[in-house]
Structure formats: C-alpha cells, structure tokens
Amino acid sequence: MLKIVVCVSGGGTNLQAIMDAIDSGKITNTQILAVISNNPGVKALERAEKYGVPGICMSPKSYPDRAAFNEAFTAKMCELAPDLVVLAGFLVKIPEQMVAKFSGRIVNIHPSLIPSFCGVGYYGLKVHEKALQRGVKVTGATVHFVNEGMDEGPIIAQKAVMVEDDDTPETLQRRVMEQAEWILLPQAIDDVANGRLTIVDGHVRRNAKD
Ligand code: GAR
Question: Which of 6, 53, 170, 187 has its CB surrounded by the most CB atoms within 10 Å?
C-alpha cells in the first residue's frame, strides 16, 4: 500500500480528484496519511476533513524565518514518513533537505506544458495569464518528479489543452484542470503505487508490461 501525504495551498480540486479516484478505484493500493496546507482556513482542508483524513496547517508565517519553517516542515514530513509526497497545488518551494530525504518520491502537478510557463513566479492563475498574454494556441499540464530546481524534475506525463479565442485566465484554468490536471495527477499516483515508473538517466520510463 502506497502511503501518501498531499500538500495543498488553496481550493484543493486536485486533492478532490485524488480522493475521488481512490474511491472509484482509478487509484489503487494507495492511502492518504494526511493533507498539509501552508494556508489556514482553505477549502482544501475542508475537503480533507470531509474525507476523514487529518488536515495539518503549517504556515511559513508562524516561524521566525524560512529556514525554521523548512526545518519544521521537513521534520513533520519525516515523522509522517509517506512513501510519496504529492504536491497538489502547493505553492511553496520544497526545502532542499526535504528533496534530499525524499529523492524520487515527490510529485508535482503544474498547469502548463513544461518547459513553457514554469519556474519562479509561475504558479496558479499567473501561469494562464502569461499563456494568454503570449497568445499560445495550445497549453496543458505536466506531472513531474520534484528535484532541487523549480519545475525542473523528470517529467512523468503531459497533456495538451486547446486555448480558445475568448478565454480568460479563469476559463483557461478550469479547462486545463478538467481536461488535464484531474486526470494526470491521479494516473501518476496510480502508476507509482503499482510500480510502473522508473527513473533512468534523469528521465521517467514506463516499465515494460509483463
Ligand atoms: C492547480 O492549477 C495547480 O496545477 C497549480 O495550482 C492550482 C491549484 O488548484 N499549481 C501550481 O501552479 C504549482 N506551480 P487546486 O488547489 O484547486 O488543486
């Protein structure tokens, strides 16, 4: 059984997609140990409570500085000891010491086709604002393993989504979630839970079927 901790910052629709996929059997062999939010009072924590998993709030603002937060956050993760950390709309940079301790065991969903519209400053709605400003006709989402860089780890899967002429950042965000994110992230968790993925020379390979 793959034990996961899901990290969130806001609405938690990706968290909901994971919980729904576990319930419907699209994700198998997986148990959510806890949900960690860096923001108090968010909808994602309500979703966790409704689902019956512990919701933990750890805000960087409650610590004297970022180093103290990073230490406490990493210590909490080590205490929970998940097999996989899932960043489902978590808008905080993962501390280097956590990446080292959970090497190859952290996945993130990003709302663009990496390497477009990613890196520092590209998160949430801002990604879609930038995509519309640039006038791209196709965007999408990417699920990837997390390394020390920002949105730079090995890519697990990507899905393209068409941009429409009358899109606003909000309509585009919704379409990318519906057509890509809520499908890709549960699939990637199921792939990890069932041992389908291997990282070879920094690239994700899908294991050959028996
Ligand atoms: C999602 O679109 C997710 O891809 C994005 O934040 C949103 C969270 O929505 N994540 C990033 O931008 C990470 N760089 P949700 O809370 O409803 O899942």
Answer: 6
CATH number for the domain that contains residue 163: 3.40.50.170
| pLDDT, tens digit, 9 for 90 and up, residues 149-159 | 999 999 999 99
Mutate to test the pocket of ligand 1, among 6, 36, 45, 109 (most ligand atoms within 8 A of CB): 109
- Report CA dihedral (92, 94, 95, 96) to the nearest 10 degrees: -150
Quick check: helix, strand or coil at residue 26? coil
In this structure, are residues 40 and 59 in contact, taking their beta carbons and an 8 Å threshold?
A: yes
Q: How far is CA 165 from CA 130, 132, 162, 171, in A?
A: 15, 9, 10, 11
Number of domains within the chain: 1
- pTM of the shown model: 0.97
Which amino acid does the sequence have at 177?
Answer: M
